[in-house]
C-alpha cells in the first residue's frame, strides 16, 4: 500500500487524505528511508540545492492572547517583557543586511502597542534604507491593516493555522476561532502577500488524521512558506507537563508536505533544532529548504521564550546544518561574518 502511494507521486497524481495518512504511518526502516528519499528528490527538482537563509527579529514578546501552548501568553507573569524601538529594529536589520541576507522577518506576540502607523514606519524605513524583502509575523490584524502593510512594502505575511482540525484549533486557542484564522489566511492571499502558515506536531490529542488535514490545508490555501515543528512544552503554561512532539513524526510531516505541496518553501524550523541538535540537518534531508536565523539582540532573546530550551539558531549553526546536509550555502551570504567555522572548509564546498 505504502509503495503504491509513493508511485502515485512519481506520476504526479494528487493524493487524497487516506493516501496521505498511509505515508504518515510509515514506520518500517525501509519505508521511512523511501519516504525521505522521495521527498528529497522532489525538493531537489522543485527548489534545487541552495538552502535559503532568512533572519528574524523578535521585536516584542508582549502578547494579548493566551494560547495554551505558548510561553508568551498573557497570563505568564514569569516572563520579562520587552519591546524594541523603531531605531533598535532598524539597527538589527542593518546587521542582517550586512550578512548579505535578503529577507528580514519581523516577529512578535500579538502586541497592539505597535499601531498600524508604527509598523508602517518601520516597513518604509527598511525598504528605503536597505531595500530588503519584509516578512511580517505579527499575529491576527485587521484586513485594513494587512492591506496598508502590503502597500507600505511588506512582501510576506506569516500567520500559522497551527492545527487544521477545527476542534483541536479551538481547544488550544482560547481567544481564537478556526473560521476567523482561515478567513485571515484567505485575505492575506487575496491581498497579494506571499503567505506563510504551518503548525505544530504532537499537540495533545492530535491524531494522524489531524496531521493529514494540516497538510491538505496548506495545499488548499496555496501557502508558499510552510513551517512545521514539534510542539515543545513551555514552562508556566497549561501545557507545561505535556510531552514534546517526536522527531520522526515531524520529519515525516516535513517529507509528506514536500511531496504534496512540491514547489514551496519549507523551513527546517527552530523548534526542530531545539528538539534535536541534528534535527535541522535531518529536516533538510527530508524536504526542507530554508533556515531562519534568530537575530534578536542577545540580551532580549532569552525572553522570547515561546517554549522552553529554545535553540538560538545563528549563522554559524545554520551553515553547519547546511554543510552537514550536503547542501549549498546561498551565494548572497557574506561569510566573513562567520565565527566558529573555518572559512576554508566553507569555501571548499
Ligand atoms: N511549541 C512549539 N512551537 C510553539 N510555538 C508557540 N508555542 C510553541 C510550543 N509550545 C510556535 C507556534 C507559533 C509561534 C509563535 O511559535 O507555531 O506560531
Ligand atoms: Fe501570543 Fe502567538 Fe503565543 Fe498565541 S502563539 S500566545 S498569539 S505569541
Question: What small-molecule ligands were found?
Answer: 5'-deoxyadenosine, iron/sulfur cluster
Major sheet strand order: 6-5-4-3-2-1-7
Helix content: 40-55%
Calculate Rg over CA atoms. 19 Å
Question: What's the story with the biggest beta sheet?
Answer: 7 strands, parallel
Q: How would you spell out the order of helices and strands?
A: HHHEHEHEHEHHEHEHHHEHHH
Q: Can you count the helices?
A: 15
What is the third-level CATH name, the topology?
TIM Barrel
Average pLDDT over all residues: 96
Distance between the terminal alpha carbons, to the nearest Å? 40 Å
Briefly note the structural class of the backbone: alpha/beta
Beta-strand residue fraction: 5-15%
Count of separate structural domains:
1
For CATH, the homologous superfamily is named as Aldolase class I
- Please state the second-level CATH architecture: Alpha-Beta Barrel
CATH class: Alpha Beta
Tally the beta strands.
7
Assign an overall shape.
globular
- Which blocks of ≥5 consecutive residues have pLDDT under 50? none
Protein name: Iron-only hydrogenase maturation protein HydE
Cofactor: [2Fe-2S] cluster; [4Fe-4S] cluster
GO molecular function: 4 iron, 4 sulfur cluster binding; metal ion binding; transferase activity
Keywords: 4Fe-4S, Iron, Iron-sulfur, Metal-binding, S-adenosyl-L-methionine
Amino acid at each position: 500500500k505504502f509503495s503504491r502511494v509513493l508511485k502515485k507521486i512519481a506520476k504526479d497524481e494528487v493524493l487524497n487524505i487516506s493516501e496521505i495518512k498511509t505515508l504518515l504511518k510509515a514506520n518500517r526502516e525501509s519505508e521511512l528511508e523511501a519516504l525521505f528519499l522521495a521527498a528529497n528528490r522532489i525538493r531537489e527538482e522543485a527548489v534545487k540545492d541552495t538552502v535559503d537563509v532568512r533572519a528574524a527579529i523578535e521585536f516584542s514578546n508582549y502578547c494579548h492572547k493566551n494560547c495554551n501552548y505558548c510561553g508568551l501568553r498573557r497570563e505568564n507573569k514569569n516572563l520579562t517583557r520587552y519591546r524594541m524601538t523603531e531605531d533598535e529594529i532598524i539597527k538589527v536589520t542593518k546587521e542582517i543586511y550586512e550578512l548579505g541576507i535578503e529577507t528580514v522577518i519581523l516577529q512578535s506576540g500579538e502586541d497592539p502597542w505597535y499601531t498600524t502607523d508604527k509598523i508602517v514606519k518601520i516597513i518604509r524605513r527598511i525598504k528605503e534604507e536597505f531595500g530588503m524583502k519584509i516578512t511580517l509575523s505579527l499575529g491576527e490584524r485587521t484586513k485594513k491593516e494587512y492591506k496598508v502593510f502590503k502597500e507600505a512594502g511588506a512582501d510576506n505575511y506569516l500567520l500559522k493555522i497551527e492545527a487544521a482540525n477545527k476542534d483541536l484549533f479551538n481547544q488550544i486557542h482560547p481567544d481564537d476561532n478556526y473560521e476567523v484564522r482561515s478567513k485571515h489566511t484567505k485575505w492575506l492571499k487575496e491581498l497579494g502577500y506571499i503567505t506563510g502558515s504551518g503548525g505544530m506536531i504532537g499537540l495533545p490529542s492530535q491524531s494522524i488524521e489531524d496531521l493529514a488535514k494540516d497538510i491538505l490545508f496548506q495545499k488548499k490555501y496555496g501557502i508558499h512558506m510552510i513551517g512545521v515543528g514539534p510542539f515543545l512544552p513551555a514552562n508556566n503554561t497549561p501545557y507545561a507537563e505535556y510531552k514534546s512532539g517526536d522527531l520522526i513524526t515531524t520529519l515525516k510531516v516535513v517529507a509528506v508536505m514536500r511531496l504534496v505541496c512540491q514547489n514551496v518553501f519549507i523551513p527546517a524550523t527552530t523548534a526542530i533544532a531545539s528538539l534535536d541538535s541534528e534535527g535541522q540537518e535531518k529536516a533538510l534531508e527530508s524536504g526542507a529548504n530554508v533556515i531562519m536565523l534568530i537575530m534578536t539582540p542577545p540580551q532580549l532573546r532569552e525572553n522570547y521564550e515561546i517554549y522552553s530550551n529554545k535553540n538560538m539558531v545563528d549563522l554559524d549553526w545554520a551553515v553547519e546544518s547546511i554543510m552537514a546536509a550536503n547542501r549549498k550555502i546561498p551565494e548572497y551570504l557574506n561569510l566573513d561574518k562567520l565565527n566558529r567555522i573555518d572559512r576554508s572548509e566553507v569555501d571548499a564546498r
